[in-house]
Amino acid sequence: MSATKLAIGAAGRAHAVTIAPADVPGQYRIAIDGGEPMVVDAVASTSNGTTTWSVRDVATGAVRTIAVSLSPTGEGDAVVGGHTVPVALAGRRRGRRGALGVADGEQRVVAPMPGKVIRVLVKPGDAVEPRQGLVVIEAMKMENELTARRAGTVTELPVSEGESVEAGRLLLVIA
Known about the structure:
Blueprint: E1 4-10, E2 13-21, E3 27-32, E4 38-47, E5 50-57, E6 63-70, E7 75-80, E8 83-89, E9 107-110, E10 115-120, E11 127-128, E12 133-139, E13 142-147, E14 152-156, E15 164-165, E16 170-174
Antiparallel strand pairs: 1-2, 1-8, 2-3, 3-4, 4-5, 5-6, 6-7, 7-8, 9-16, 10-12, 10-15, 11-14, 12-13, 14-16
């Protein structure tokens, strides 16, 4: 595997992420914005077009779950720590989301991990503001409040309170 380059838009700013194999099989070097690479173990599983990664920092032992959904155009979303950020393969940043990957288009909020919807804080037609709570998911005995990354209007809400969801499941759409 050669190095993979991603452009990730977060808070209106583009970040360059490079992922390359490390010296040990099953480990990868990840560098953000040309910084010092971090070596991680990563295990992936794919379901319904979403790849969910369990990533462990080799140096600290810290574990993160990252769910990534990419369309055939190379654009999509990554869910990290309950926050959804748009992602695009390098060189494909000028699609429905604008030059930085955050300006235009709909915001699709997906489940960051398998869990249960315990609270729905909005309904279709509601106007939302950046960082406003949308849905609360319970997973591994922890509550994760998913928030809006920008202002908009809730257009779809295909889940309800009490429903079990898998990682990457669409929870709501904001236009």
